[in-house]
Amino acid sequence: MKKLYVTRTAPNPRKALILLASKGIDVDDMDDVDVIDIDFAANEQMSDEFTKINPMQTVPVLVLGDGTVLNDSQAVCEYLDRVYGERSVMGNDVIQRAQVCAMRRIAEFEVLYNFMLAFQHSHPSKAQRVEQVPEFVAPSVARAVKALAYFENILEGREYLVGEQLSFADIVLYLGLDFGKVLNVNPNEQGENLARFYQMMNERFSIKNMAKAKIAHTNE
Q1: What is the CB-side half-sphere exposure of residue 107 using CA atoms within 13 A?
Q2: Residue 75 belongs to a domain with what CATH number?
């Protein structure tokens, strides 16, 4: 049995949960994966038990049946994408995979990472893990917002960032837009294309709507 450690409200583990959901897979219904929720509010990620599994004290973490530990969100998602579901969200051929990789990296390092950096250096809950530098906050938010203009142009006349189907790049951009709300960056005010994209993705993959879908599925 594999073990997947997640925190369902945090951006990085949500990558894995949304990736599976985009393939019609409910992580809690998987026969060969045991999902273990880590409570960041209670600092469970810093416990001795979890630190033995992942000394970096981050999620997601996927422990395979043979004991192999994958403790990076990209590595976890690459594994899940290749093993589960019929269609890859990483790209259908070598060119598309390269395009998805490029878009994903820009979305991650220019948008999501900068919002997360601003959060780490401003939120009281992160003070014990990070030597906070308040001066990092405004420039990080500004850089993320500047990058959003790039995606606003990319999405002109397009539903998705690459090709005609949802890809991992879309998932990462959505999470960046969603996390920006914590820093008072409204995803619906960054351009018409981004607003349309965010609303489309949020309808399927918001924490609230994914929970509703699970309840509806359970009651069927």
Answers
A1: 29
A2: 3.40.30.10
Has this prediction a pTM greater than 0.85?
Answer: yes
Please choose, from the candidates 38, 34, 32, 42, the residue with its C-alpha nearest in 3D space to the C-alpha of residue 8. Answer: 38
CA 86, 26, 71, 130 torsion: positive or negative? positive
Partnered with residue 70 across adjacent β-strands are 62
165 and 116 assigned to the same domain: yes
* Number of domains making up the chain: 2
Gap between the terminal Cα atoms of the chain: 27
CA distance 216 to 210: 10
CB 5 within 8 A of CB 59: yes
User: How many angstroms separate the CA atoms of 44 and 50, rounded?
Assistant: 7
Is residue 172 a part of any domain in this protein? Answer: yes
Is omega for the bond preceding 60 within 30 degrees of 0, making it cis?
yes
The tens digit of pLDDT for each residue in 44-62 reads 999 999 999 999 999 999 9
Q: In what order do the strands lie in the sheet with 2-6?
A: 33-37, 2-6, 61-63, 69-70
- pLDDT tens for residues 158-184? 999 999 999 999 999 999 999 999 999
Q: Indicate the residue among 83, 118, 145 that finishes a domain.
A: 83
